[in-house]
Design goal:
Alpha-Beta Plaits; globular; disordered C terminus
Length: about 190
């Protein structure tokens, strides 16, 4: 319906990104008060809201390496996976993109609460624990905090030192997700929900 990837593909993509030297950023988005769309417009109203939210998210996350997923946990959640453009400012850049997406959803009348989680590369080659194992769990925790703090928010905010840093800068040395997964053509990996 939304044309987005599903949760199974998120798990596969996270495993494939395990050894990347870039920071992996995962945003979890929960549409606020989604039940009202189903109550006021029946199931069709909910479907229209999901499609509108997917379109708004695609408008923000346009890089070929950005991945957007519709998650089936509650039906009204989306996941966004991308690599940090600048390792040093990953938290600040993640917050700015999440805030831009939050505003886009709000303008589309489908406000949402965002949780940010970042997995930084480890200097140790032989990792005992998966880098990405806790990524979704941390994003869920942060999304829940955003909801408790009044909904239609992004959590966590960057530390003050990062908030005042320069704007997002593209680093040509950071590989894109397709470059890290050349064996899996993008078209074969898309599955509409």
């Amino acid at each position: 319906m939304t044309g987005l990837r599903n949760g199974r593909l998120l798990e596969q993509d996270l495993k494939l990104l395990e050894r990347t030297k870039s920071a992996i950023i995962f945003l979890l988005v929960d549409l606020d008060d989604f039940r009202r769309f189903n109550v006021e417009g029946y199931q069709e109203g909910g479907n229209r809201a999901l499609i509108r939210a997917a379109e708004r998210l695609r408008g923000v996350f346009k890089r070929g390496s950005d991945r957007i997923y519709r998650l089936h946990t509650a039906g009204d959640e989306f996941g966004i996976l991308f690599l940090a453009r600048n390792l040093q400012h990953a938290q600040r850049d993640a917050y700015r993109l999440a805030e831009k997406a939050r505003v886009a959803l709000e303008e589309g009348c489908t406000p949402g609460s965002f949780g940010i989680a970042i997995s930084y590369p480890s200097p140790v080659d032989d990792l005992k624990l998966s880098r990405t194992a806790c990524l979704v769990r941390r994003a869920t925790k942060h999304k829940d905090i955003a909801k408790r703090n009044g909904k239609n928010r992004v959590h966590p905010k960057p530390r003050p030192r990062e908030a005042s840093a320069s704007p997002i800068v593209s680093a040509p040395t950071v590989p894109t997700i397709p470059e890290l997964m050349p064996d899996l053509p993008t078209d074969d990996r898309l599955r509409a929900i």
